[in-house]
Amino acid sequence: MSEHETHSETLGEPTRRDFLYLTTGMAAAVGAVAVAWPFIDQMRPDASTLALASIEVDVSALEPGMSLTVKWRGKPVFIRNRTAQEVEEANAVQLAELKDPIARNDNIDAAAEATDLARSAGEGKENWIVMIGSCTHLGCVPLGQSGDFGGWFCPCHGSHYDTAGRIRRGPAPTNLPVPTFTFTSDTVIQIG
Ligand code: FES
């Protein structure tokens, strides 16, 4: 033992070993708080958590050809009022041409085919399309009115989606998913 250490202990100062015990004890206390908090939070969802479960979007300003991106449950959601030509182009596509033949629409049967109608807001509202704006490859946000099929294009690795948000070319495996949504009036869409 060195002369210095002997001197420190004599004066009652913490030795290096005591100091290590102290810091370890503090880390454990912080860890316990971090673990306990999420449980308490889960039992008591506050107003903002509940509000995020669904959102209402006023789409009255969206003329044909215009789109809007909103945030829902932390993800971008694309809402597009498609032009008659865009709907027509998507309708003209044969199912056999599709890379992913499943509609991926949470509002209809999980096995429904990816026709344009099945991808849209449905009968009488075929012009409206609502989709999660997250590329099904690795999650980048695709760009609207872009790509080889006039729909969306993901520049990250080159995925092309058509005007119904169906994957047509590139590495993305599936169509952009359609979340649960409903028109609560002619101009308001509730998502979630
Ligand atoms: S994340 Fe979109 S192509 Fe890779």
Topology:
Blueprint lengths: L2 H9 L4 H28 L3 H7 L1 E4 L7 E7 L2 E7 L2 H8 L24 H4 L8 E5 L10 E2 L5 E5 L4 E4 L4 E3 L11 E3 L4 E4 L1
Antiparallel strand pairs: 1-10, 2-3, 3-4, 5-6, 6-7, 7-8, 9-10
Bound molecules: FE2/S2 (inorganic) cluster (FES).
The site of FE2/S2 (inorganic) cluster has 13 residues, from loops.
InterPro entries: Rieske_2Fe-2S (IPR017941), Rieske_2Fe-2S_sf (IPR036922), Rieske_Fe-S_prot (IPR014349), Rieske_Fe-S_prot_C (IPR005805), TAT_signal (IPR006311), TAT_signal_bac_arc (IPR019546), Ubiq_cytC_Rdtase_Fe-S_su_TAT (IPR019470), Ubiquinol_cyt_c_Rdtase_Fe-S-su (IPR006317)
Pfam families: Rieske, UCR_Fe-S_N
Organism: Pseudorhizobium pelagicum
Can you walk through the features of this model?
By secondary structure, the chain is α+β, with helices and mostly antiparallel strands. It folds into two domains: about 5-40; about 50-190, Rieske Iron-sulfur Protein, CATH 2.102.10.10. It has five helices and ten strands. The chain has helices at about 5-10, 15-45, 45-55, 85-90, 115-120; strands at about 55-60, 65-70, 75-80, 130, 145, 150-155, 160, 165-170, 180-185, 190. Strands 5-6-7-8 form a four-stranded antiparallel sheet, with no helix packed on it. It starts with a helix and ends with a strand. Residues about 1-10 and about 20-45 have low confidence and may be disordered. The structure holds FE2/S2 (inorganic) cluster.
